[in-house]
Structure formats: structure tokens, C-alpha cells
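This entry is retained here.
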Amino acid sequence: QVQLQESGPGLVKPSQTLSLTCTVSDFSITITGAHWNWIRQPPGKGLEWMGDIRYDGSTYYSPSFKSRTSISRDTSKNHFSLQLSSVTPEDTAVYYCARDYNWALDPWGQGTLVTVSS
């Protein structure tokens, strides 16, 4: 069964870079057609798609985050990562990774809360 697990610091200071990793189990991130997404949900707000990295390593970003976001991968570790620079308290959110495959955004990781605070 495919599983995704987010990991990274739960607290980041303003102006620093938020870094998270999503480790994928039982499914190679290089399988044709798979897109690997980062999505977040600020407190009391809806889900926000941030971007994805695809099976071939290409990346796509939401215009809302493009200037501050980088998504990369390590195929030897079967994981992909998110970096969000110049964070502010407004970047406090639960961050999720999710697979998009065969027209389904599934599964998702359990999510990890990242708080931006000094």
C-alpha cells in the first residue's frame, strides 16, 4: 500500500526557509504518470496547491508561490522535498504531500504543522 510521510521542522523563524521532505513507500516516484504534490492549509482557511514534481523531474508551481518555492527530489531515497523561502507568520499551515496518479489525488500524507514564529 502506497504511503506518504511528511517530515521536517515544526517551527521556523520569520525570513528563514521552510524545508519539508515527503518520503514515499511502496511506489517509485519515477513511475510514468505520477505527479507528487505539495498542498497546504492555513488555520481556518482552505487548501492551497503549491506545486508538484513529476515522474520525469519536471516541476510546476502555483503562481502564488512560484517566486518563493522550490520542489526537488532524490530518486535514490524515493522522496521529494519542498523549500519555501522568506517565510512569514502567514505561512503557518499544515503542509501535506500527495500523489496524483490515474486522475486521483491519493494518497495523502498525514500532514505536518509548520508554525512560523520568532
Notes: The mean pLDDT is 97. Residues 51 and 61 are 4 Å apart (CA to CA). The first strand starts at residue 3 and ends at 7.
